[in-house]
Specification:
Radius of gyration: 20 Å
Strand order of the largest sheet: 1-2-3-5-4
Helix content: 25-40%
Largest sheet: 5 strands, antiparallel
Structural class: alpha+beta
Shape: globular
Distance between the termini: 25 Å
Number of strands: 7
Mean pLDDT: 90
Number of helices: 5
Strand content: 15-25%
Length: about 210
């Protein structure tokens, strides 16, 4: 999509300034008065279907609000998701800064500080339509699927890692483990910096 529908632009009372680079969604820099904002069109990357995608996008909006309340420079949402002409849209704060290469030390400090933040995650609950990344540990067909990998070295590596993951999981007391909010895509492009200060944490597809 080259530009958002004119009807949506009119309803939101915004002006398009530029298209922004994005990997999974369409994004535009827009303005409302003197304020710069980001308008996003969300794509159904996981094949959730329209209604479930809307619930997932609404969860992301809530997650961003939780992050902002926890003192993190996440984009503050401007209202709830908008359903328009068969697509889900969000409008959010535009954050300053530029991405750069993040050192291993900086990334470790960010993750440590993030996990130490007392987010009210009970308010969020599970993300609608999210994949259960732990399901493979108990899936009876996991070995069959991974064993079907064509490359012998890759197949052996995957099966070995599956065994290691299951062994580690057996030693975890899941009832005593603290639930934390995890950013699922903490790459350099999702971190904006102004000097040495983190000024933007993007794509909270947690």
């Amino acid at each position: 999509m080259d530009a958002p529908p004119s009807t949506l632009i009119r309803d939101l009372a915004v002006t398009i300034k530029a298209r922004l680079p994005a990997r999974s969604n369409d994004s535009w820099l827009v303005s409302r008065g003197a304020e710069d904002l980001v308008l996003r069109r969300h794509h159904d990357q996981l094949g959730l279907g329209h209604e479930l995608l809307g619930l997932s996008v609404a969860w992301q909006v809530s997650a961003s609000e939780v992050a902002v309340a926890g003192g993190w420079p996440a984009p503050h949402p401007c209202g709830q998701p908008i359903e328009h002409l068969g697509s889900w849209w969000t409008l959010e704060q535009f954050l300053p800064g530029e991405p750069r290469t993040t050192t291993a030390t900086e990334r470790a400090e960010l993750i440590t500080t993030w996990h130490a933040t007392p987010f009210p995650i009970d308010r969020l609950g599970p993300r609608p339509g999210a994949l259960d990344h732990l399901a493979i540990l108990t899936d009876p067909y996991a070995e069959t699927v991974l064993g079907g990998c064509e490359g012998r070295a890759d197949r052996e590596w995957l099966l070995r890692r599956l065994d290691q993951a299951r062994e580690l999981a057996e030693g975890i007391d899941w009832t005593a483990s603290r639930r934390v909010l995890v950013h699922g895509d903490l790459i350099d492009q999702n971190l904006l910096w102004t000097g040495d200060r983190l000024t933007g944490l993007l794509d909270l597809e947690l």
